[in-house]
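Onboarding guide, step 5: your first structure request.
Type a short instruction followed by the sequence, for example:

Predict the 3D structure of this protein.
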Amino acid sequence: MNSRSVINTDKAPQAIGPYSQAIKTDRFVFTAGQIAIDPNTGEVVEGDVGRQTQQVLENLKAVLEAAGVSLAAVVKTTVYLVRPEDFAPMNEVYARFFPSDPPARTTVFISALPKNVAVEIDAVAQL
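The system replies with structure tokens like these:
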């Protein structure tokens, strides 16, 4: 029988809509997209896309840890950016969080993100 459990942690921003921070199944953890909200203040982190990417990945790390895995278990991410010129600075920070054997990744450029942030990232991790 397949299991399904909701993952929730106060070390990452609470969902701002009708969704869970993550869902854990028998084999995978599927995270919701994370944006640059500081979980301590509930406010968007000020700064450029590099600073926002740092906060996004810290949030993803916290959600994954609440599910019992680390960033090393991530097999796929999707990165959403508003501005093409933000790709290189986002990538620089992203590479620090996945220093070896990085996950597969898709990067999508879109017209807007929640709370007018510059970047959003979601992940799938293997248990």
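Each response can be followed by summary notes, for example: The mean pLDDT is 96.
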